[in-house]
Amino acid sequence: MKFHSIFLAIICFVVLSCNGQNSKEIKTIDSKAFAEKIAATQNPQILDVRTPEEFTSDHIDNAKNINWLGTTFVANVEKLDKSQPIFVYCKSGGRSQKAAEKLNELGFKTIYQLDGGMLKWDAAGLSKPSAKIIGLSVPEYNKLLNSDKKVLINFYAEWCAPCKKMTPYVLQMQKDLADKVTIIRLDADKNKTLISEMKISELPTLLLYDKAAVKWKHSGFISEADLKKQLQ
What we know:
Order of helices and strands: HEHEHEHEHEHHEHEHEEH
Helix content: 40-55%
Largest sheet: 5 strands, parallel
Structural class: alpha/beta
Strand content: 15-25%
Radius of gyration: 22 Å
Number of helices: 10
């Protein structure tokens, strides 16, 4: 019995030690700290784990694109220097978290993950301003709000897991509540200018307008029942 207790104590110690080590090696930091760490690092390894299409549209200077969703992620990151800090990011933080955990498993010593991804980076004003308007402009967006009915704007993305979960009932509400509220879904990746200027830093984001004034705002997943309460 005594031996059994000692054995369990050893197992718990090992598990806790490993968990503690992992948490120390992956440091999730905000946009400002992420930028400062990059600036203070000589020849920083910056890893963008989004798709090539996302990377082409915008990325942090000197970043290398290795798609987390691709089939060669491990093979490509194995070519990087594991002894040097690595800075990893995606669009909102979901993919970069998984990538950071994999980097940790592969033996990378110091991993910095951008909290909130490019959405938070853009909202912090750290992206270079683009002269080209991508998607709706602010004046065009404002025109969508001119309605006798309430207007719900749903910012989403195809890669966003909570957005995908919400899509079926949001689309159904577009039909069922059409006489009470106009529901407009806007793809964040196709409306980058709007996302940046409105400082939207999380997906999904929902804004409910009444006579062009914001009456309710919500970021992150919301259940069908809770959303209906806001719209009815």
